[in-house]
């Protein structure tokens, strides 16, 4: 099953995954964590060493480089993000390679009770004979999106070493903080200098995605009345009780991540912290349509208003901030980048799959900001948790698809 990309992709992902680069939503800097610079500096240096041009690390934390074109054609961008998700432990990742997967249950050396089973994960059952990469059981792997990084770097090296492959100019970009929705600076579209681009941040082989959630975040601040509990009768207003009432009044049997799929959106309480005097609840709001997203924001405001009315001595503030919008709104006006990716996948023997992303990518923001950027598969599975895994051969298929895509774009 070996092909020329397998070993390089395996080596790159194992090396990259072992580097801590988790982002932090609470930190204001860009990148949000200093450890992301370990990845960014490494990628900058590797791009210089392989002979890429215009290599730079911007002051907003993005590595950019050019793979010179060898034929007329549009400038195509390929992007991946270096940060890993903050939802699960991502420090001290110990990647391991399972060569020639035999089709059975996979156990983990650092957590023997943890099991990755093909009975529960049908896609895994399709990978008999593949070389799989997982973590050791106590961390996520970080294939989201270091698999994308490995694919883009492997493609870049291959094109630089093979100038006979006809392609237009290629721009590569590695962004920070995608997992916390801050990967695309206002300056990135101009600095990328691409006519259109692709994020390598998808899952199952064949996924060519051009539709994402539209997303807002919300912060609800509940300020009660604080007083010594011994003298609190008819005086104290406990912010914890009011915050709990807000969460409980919101839909529970519907409109939450655990009760929705397909094209359903949700209201998701992600954090709740504070004390009896003040509580802060953080939410993410998701829907595929603008109207649906607005309705979810209005529902949250109404619930806050009802709880406020029931306790006028408290102060409840609901603030909603835009994050990104469904990239379909722009891509459907010109499907050329999507059609090229589909054609490249077919040329590599892969049937393209286009399903809505129940999330977002850097491409969501880039598309909204004027650079059409659909999302392409990497093979990553079970992301953001200890069961995360990926097939080296799936990554190789993604790499070949990107090389073919670059050629097809030059042909027009």
List keywords for this structure.
22% strand; seven-stranded mixed β-sheet; alpha+beta; single chain; 412 residues
Question: What can you see in these coordinates?
Answer:
- By secondary structure, the protein is an alpha+beta fold.
- 32% of the residues lie in helices and 22% in strands.
- It contains eleven helices and 16 strands.
- The strands form four sheets. The chain has a seven-stranded mixed beta sheet, with helices on one face. Strands 12-13-11-14 form a four-stranded antiparallel beta sheet. The chain has a three-stranded antiparallel beta sheet with strand order 4-7-16.
- Helix 1 packs across helix 4, helix 1 (6-17) packs across helix 11 (392-411) and helix 9 crosses helix 11.
- The chain is globular, with a radius of gyration of 23 Å.
- The active site is at residues 83, 178.
- Its cofactor is Zn(2+).
- It holds the Pfam family Peptidase_M20.
What is the strand arrangement across the widest sheet? 1-2-8-3-9-15-10
Overall body shape: globular
Helix coverage percent: 25-40%
The helix/strand class is alpha+beta
Q: What is the distance, rounded to the nearest whole angstrom, between the alpha carbons of the first and last residues?
A: 32 Å
Number of strands: 16
Low-confidence stretches: none
The mean pLDDT is: 96
What is the H/E string?
Answer: HHEEEEEEHEHEHEEEHEEHEHHHEEH
Strand proportion, as a percent range, falls in 15-25%
As a whole number of angstroms, the C-alpha radius of gyration is 23 Å
Q: Main beta sheet: strand number and arrangement?
A: 7 strands, mixed
- What is the overall number of helices? 11
Binding site for Zn(2+) 1: 81, 144, 201
InterPro entries: ArgE/DapE_CS, Bact_exopeptidase_dim_dom, Peptidase_M20, Peptidase_M20_dimer, Peptidase_M20B
GO molecular function: metallopeptidase activity; tripeptide aminopeptidase activity; zinc ion binding
Protein name: Peptidase T
């Amino acid at each position: 099953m070996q092909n020329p990309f397998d070993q390089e992709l395996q080596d790159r992902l194992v090396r990259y995954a072992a580097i801590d680069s988790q982002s932090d939503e609470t930190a204001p800097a860009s990148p949000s964590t200093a450890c992301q610079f370990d990845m960014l500096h490494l990628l900058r240096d590797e791009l210089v060493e392989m002979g890429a041009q215009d290599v730079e690390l911007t002051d907003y934390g993005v590595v950019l480089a050019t793979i010179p074109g060898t034929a007329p054609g549009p400038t195509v961008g390929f992007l991946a993000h270096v940060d890993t998700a903050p939802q699960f432990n991502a420090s001290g990742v110990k990647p391991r390679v399972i060569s020639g997967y035999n089709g059975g249950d996979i156990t983990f050396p650092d957590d023997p009770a943890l099991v990755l089973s093909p009975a529960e994960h049908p896609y895994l059952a399709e990978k008999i004979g593949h070389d799989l990469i997982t973590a050791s059981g106590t961390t996520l792997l970080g294939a989201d999106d270091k698999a994308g990084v490995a694919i883009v770097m492997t493609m870049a090296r291959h094109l630089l070493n093979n100038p006979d492959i006809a392609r237009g100019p290629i721009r590569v970009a590695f962004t920070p903080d995608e997992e916390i929705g801050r990967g695309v600076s206002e300056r990135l579209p101009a600095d990328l200098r691409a006519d259109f681009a692709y994020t390598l941040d998808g899952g199952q082989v064949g996924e060519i995605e051009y539709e994402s959630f539209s997303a807002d975040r919300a912060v609800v601040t509940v300020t009660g009345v604080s007083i010594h509990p011994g003298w609190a009768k008819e005086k104290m207003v406990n912010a914890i009780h009011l915050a709990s009432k807000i969460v409980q009044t919101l839909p529970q049997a519907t409109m939450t991540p655990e009760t929705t799929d397909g094209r359903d959106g949700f209201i998701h309480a992600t954090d709740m912290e504070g004390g009896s005097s003040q509580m802060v609840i953080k939410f993410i709001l998701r829907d595929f349509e603008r109207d649906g997203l607005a309705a979810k924001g209005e529902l949250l405001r109404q619930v806050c208003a009802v709880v406020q009315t029931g306790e006028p001595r408290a102060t409840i503030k609901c603030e909603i901030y835009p994050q990104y919008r469904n990239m379909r709104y722009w891509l459907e006006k010109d499907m050329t980048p999507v059609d090229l990716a589909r054609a490249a996948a077919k040329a590599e023997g892969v049937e393209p799959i286009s399903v809505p992303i129940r999330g977002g990518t850097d491409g969501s923001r880039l598309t909204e900001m004027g650079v059409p950027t659909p999302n392409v598969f990497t093979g990553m599975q079970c992301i953001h948790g200890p069961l995360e895994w990926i097939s080296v051969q799936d990554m190789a298929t993604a790499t070949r698809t990107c090389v073919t895509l670059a050629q097809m774009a030059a042909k027009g």
